[in-house]
Amino acid sequence: MAKICSGCGAQIQSSDPKRPGYVPPELLSRENVICQRCFKISHYNQLTPVTVNPDHFNNLLKKIGQEKALVVKIIDLFDFNGTMLPGFARLMRFNPVVVAVNKIDLLPRVNWGRIKEWIKRQIETLGMKPVDLVFVSGANGSGIRELLSAIRNHRQGRDVYLVGAANVGKSTLINQILNYIDQEADLKLTTSRFPGTTLDLIAIPLKDGTVLYDTPGVISGEQMTHYLSAEDLKLVLPQKPLKPKIYQLNPQQTLFFGGLARLDFIAGVRSSFVCYMADSLPIHRSKLERADRLYRRHLGGLLHPPRAQALSNWGPLEKHTFQLDESADLVIAGLGWVAFKGEKGEVTLHAPQGVKVLKRTTLI
Length: 364
Ligand code: GDP
Fold this sequence. Notes:
Layout: H1 36-44, E1 51-52, H2 54-66, E2 69-76, H3 88-91, E3 97-102, H4 112-125, E4 132-135, H5 144-155, E5 159-164, H6 170-184, E6 202-205, E7 211-214, E8 217-218, H7 230-236, E9 245-249, E10 253-257, E11 261-268, E12 271-276, E13 283-287, H8 288-298, E14 317-324, E15 328-332, E16 336-341, E17 345-352, E18 357-360
Parallel strand pairs: 1-8, 2-3, 2-5, 3-4, 5-7
Antiparallel strand pairs: 6-7, 9-12, 10-11, 10-13, 11-17, 12-16, 14-17, 15-16, 15-18
The structure holds guanosine-5'-diphosphate.
Residues 49, 102-103, 105-106, 137-139, 164, 166-172, 217, 237-239 line the site of guanosine-5'-diphosphate (GDP).
C-alpha cells in the first residue's frame, strides 16, 4: 500500500524532489515517514517549493473556491502574464483575494504609482476584483509587513490560502513570512494535515484557531521556465535588478535571446528595442537573412541556453507576428519582455511551442 506523509497527507515518493511527498530513497523503508518539505518546515521553519500538474491544481482551486477563505494570489512581476493563472478568477469568484506582486526588487527605480495602475488595469481585464494589492519582495523582505496587515484586515476570522504558479517565488516569500511570524510570536508554527483530503497542503495554524495554508505551485506550460533544465533556469531567472539593454535595430535585423527565443524586426523605420531580461542571458544581434542558419549552426553553443546537453528535448520555435502602431511590450512569458519604442513596425517573435507570447501596453 502507498505510504502517506504524516505531515501533509501527500503520497510518499522518492523520484522527484520538486513533487509533493518527496523522501530521499534511503529513508523510504522507515515506518513513519514525513516528507522532506514537512521535515524542513517543522525543523527549520523553512518551506521548499513543490509543484503539481494543472489538473491537480485546478481541483485544488475548486476546493478552495468552496471554502470561506481569504486567498492570497502571488504573481511574479517579472513574469506577470505567465503567472496570472488562467481560470483563477472564475474559480475564486466567491473568495476575497489579496494580490501580492512579488520580486519588486527587480525594478528598483520606477514610478510605483504608475505600475500599480498598470497592474490594476491588467487584473481587471482578466476579470479579477482583488480586495487589496500589495508589492513584496521575498528576496529582500520588503512589503512583508504590508502583506501581513492586508491579510489581517481582510481575513475576518477566515482561513488563508497562499496560491501561485511555480517559480513566482512563493517559497522564498513564505519563508520570509514564517520568520516574521516567528519574530512577532503571535502565530504558532507546526505542520498538520488538511482534514479529510490529500491535497498536499501545508497548514500553519494561527493563534486564533484559523489556519494559513501553503499550496503547491502549478507548473504552467505557458511559462518559458517550464521547458528548461535547472542549470539553464538559473540563467533565465533574474536575481539582481534588471538592467535594460537597448538595441537600435534597422528593419531586417534579428535579436537572439540565447537560443530560447528570437525577435525579427521585419518592417518599419530604425527603432529602439529595450530588453528586460536576466543579465546572465546572452543576447546576439544578426541580420535576418542569416538568422536561420546561425540558429541551426550555433544552437546550444554560441546561442545558449539551452545548453548542448539539453538539446535532445528541444523542439523548433513557433512564430508569432505582431503589427505595432505605438510603443508596446513584447512579452515571452518567463523570459522577460522587449519594449518597442517606436511608432510603427512589424515584428516576429519566435518562442518554444506552448510558451505564452503577447503584446501589451508598456509596463515601464
Ligand atoms: P516557487 O517555485 O514559487 O516556490 O519559487 P522560489 O521561491 O523557489 O523562487 C523561484 C526563483 O525566483 C528562484 O530563482 C529565486 O531565487 C527567485 N526569487 C524568489 N523570490 C524572489 C524575489 O523576491 N526577487 C527576486 N529577484 N528573485 C526571487
